[in-house]
Amino acid sequence: MGSSHPHDLPMPVTAAGREGLEALLRAPRRSVVALDFDGTLADIVPDPDQARAHPGAVPALSELAPKVASVAVITGRPAGVAVRYGGFAGAPGLEHLVVLGHYGAERWDAVSGSVQAPAEHPGVAAVRAELPGYLDSIGAWQGTWIEEKGRALAVHTRRTEDPAAAFAALREPLAELAQKHGLMVEPGRAVLELRPPGTDKGVALTEYLAEVDAEAVVYAGDDLGDLAAYAAVEKRRTDGRPGLLVCSGSAEVPELAARADLILGGPGEVVVFLSALANAMA
Predict the structure, then answer these.
(1) Which member of 36, 222, 226, 261 is catalytic?
(2) CA distance 25 to 106
(3) Is the pTM of this model over 0.85?
(4) Averaged over 220-243, what is the pLDDT?
(5) Which of 75, 86, 181, 228 could be stapled to 53 by a disulfide with Cβ–Cβ 3.0 to 4.6 Å?
(6) How far apart are CA 84 and CA 68, in angstroms?
(7) Residue 35 · residue 247 · CB < 8 Å
């Protein structure tokens, strides 16, 4: 890396990551910054409805976005919810922000201010009706609760006496329920999400990068659902297109940290990194 980079811009630990950062700084207008929401731009909180973007997130993104080809937020949340909780709508500098919600099944563009979404998968409605009784019938841990996500349903174990044990106990029964209705289970940090197959962050990221004809990409995430996006960036790298993989926090999801080029200590450090990236660009 040369000494020309600002000291406050953390250096990736891998050669591929350093190459990705170099490419980003060399040609920002051909680069995309893609970010997960919960755990990356917003701190993880016991009640997901209380999650909000880190106070520095919008200012940092507003500084960065005009310098790159695009900023995309890729989340399992409904796109409109991520926009509200992020405070993205109408923010100066974010006129071309894109939010890919429900793992890419929904899309919100700042340009239009509207969400594009397909019809709901019929299995989601079936599981919505069946899930409360099903959890009772299998003796789910006290403190387990269901989050309504519109095109998906999530079962949280974070409020139980032993979140890890509750997660392990529920994983197989929920997989059986999901399979019965043509859905899949996406595991996360003390959460199991039942959602339609065929959409994941890797597919969403790959399609979006092709749409904007991006050369380099930085992707930042914190959870198992981000592994698909990591894999998409890794595949691009084998094709000679540079990328930088950032992990936001590492304690709960070692699988992600092991594949990251740069590990940051959560949303606060992600925001500092985004600002430093903006400052390092011409």
Answers:
(1) 36
(2) 30
(3) yes
(4) 97
(5) 86
(6) 23
(7) no
